[in-house]
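Researcher: Dear colleague, please comment on this protein.
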Amino acid sequence: MPNIPFRSRRSCIKGIAAVVGGLAWLGSVQAQTQPDASYPSRPITIVVPHPPGGSVDGLARIFAVKLGEELKQSVIIDNRAGASGMVGAGVVARAAPDGYTLYLNASIHNINPLLYGKKMTFDAVKDFTPISGLAQGALIFSVNNDVPAKTVQEFVGVVKAAPNKYNFATTGFGSAGHLAIAQFAYEAGLSDLQVPIVLYKGGGPALTDLIGGQVHALADPMLSSLPMVKSGKIRALAVTGDKRSPLLPDVPTMREAGLKDFEFYSWYGLWAPAKLPEPILKKLDAAAQKVTTSASMKEQLENLGFESSYRNSADFAQYIQAETAKYGAIIKQANITAD
């Protein structure tokens, strides 16, 4: 063994340590910027905070199949309904941020804090990682067939003439349909007439009573309302998007029907618990992009009245913030409270 002076040996050891440390730092940086190759190594669960059969559940089941194919792993839907989606959201907020518990919901996730505030057991922003915006869908504004109105303006006229005779239905307190009805009443000049809004715990019961005439108007996602319109059981007066739906080409938008500032979409996104590791976030976001922008997924969504509206994690977070501000304005002008 060469006779290396003590100081030289110490310098050599320090040099080796520096190289090893540099390699460790480089590995750490790469781990933060590159997807974890081992993820996912077991089935993923997507919590849907609504019962089976609704628009959120329908979208989630389509997305889960495609996501599983993309990640080459099973993706399971877990319906945790209750409290306007807050039961399921609470489950996810308390879950480990390991990418194996995800959360798919609609815009109501960010409407709830505006209504329930400190009553909530979690923070809808701080306790979640926004992964991707997935899709959006206009609502159908429809009426019972016995309502003597074939257009939005005719409907406004008959309600103004007999406000005590008519009411609105909504599929859940604070839902997109609830806020769309509140916005419609405000822009149509019906707010001061105090037309009753009947709250239901889902689209099924609301549609049943709309068909039966117990309620007279409803704003509801196409997934549930479109079959009733197509079968002639209810009458569609308008859609709430900025353009006509190819599924209802003869039905005008609210803007075309005379409400110049009216545009309303229910949107859908994917979240995880807070502090999701960056490599897993990037892998899930990339997979969601491939799924939602694929031709087959777009076709499936369009057939159900949705449209693909992929937003990456950063854009989705900004979009949520802007939409929450819009919802807050509607809630304030309509004086909607949870008390």
Observations:
- The beta strands are 44-48, 75-79, 101-106, 128-144, 168-170, 197-199, 217-221, 234-239, 265-273, 307-311.
- Residues 259 and 288 are 35 Å apart (CA to CA).
- The chain has two domains: 44-137+266-334, 138-239.
- The domain at 44-137+266-334 is CATH 3.40.190.150 (D-Maltodextrin-Binding Protein; domain 2).
